[in-house]
Design goal:
6 helices; single chain; alpha+beta; 21% strand
């Protein structure tokens, strides 16, 4: 009985180590989903993260696949997460394996309630590009709500 319990624990340990290694060396696509634009959500901000490359901010409106679907409008397609993967491959030559979706509530908890106003002021008020605005606004991050937002479903993590 003890031998089989050790085998089961060993198998779980191997699976956990494999998942940690996979995650550490995978490209992660992060999408900030905006539910304030009507019935179908959009993607207003996106980033690609990898262990060796760090964060690369992506403007969703200029990222597209061979079919012309943009990252901003992936929720209008039949398979949005596969389209997101194809868009990253087509536009940037990068294949993400993990997708993190952050909704409006989680974005407000992590980046502050005024994240959209900050970006819009920097974009339109000061004439900068959207990518610069995202990079500028990321300097004040509150990581404490990440775990509660995952548990509440405000942040979804999936393998694509």
């Amino acid at each position: 009985m003890a031998s089989s319990a050790r085998k089961i624990i060993g198998i779980f340990a191997i699976i956990i180590v494999f998942l940690l290694v996979f995650t550490a060396f995978s490209n992660v696509l992060i999408l900030a989903q905006d539910d304030t634009e009507g019935n179908i959500p959009g993607v207003d901000m996106a980033a690609l993260w990898s262990l060796h490359g760090g964060f690369t901010w992506i403007y969703p409106g200029s990222s597209h696949n061979a079919n012309g679907h943009t990252l901003h409008n992936i929720y209008m397609t039949d398979n949005p997460y596969q389209d997101a993967k194809e868009i990253m491959e087509y536009t940037y030559g990068v294949t993400p394996h993990i997708l993190v979706i952050i909704n409006d509530q989680a974005a407000a908890h992590i980046f502050g309630d005024n994240i959209l106003d900050t970006i819009r002021q920097h974009d339109w008020g000061e004439g900068h590009s959207r990518g610069d605005a995202v990079a500028m606004s990321i300097t004040q991050v509150n990581l404490l709500p990440v775990i509660p937002d995952i548990l509440m479903g405000n942040i979804k993590i999936m393998i694509i």
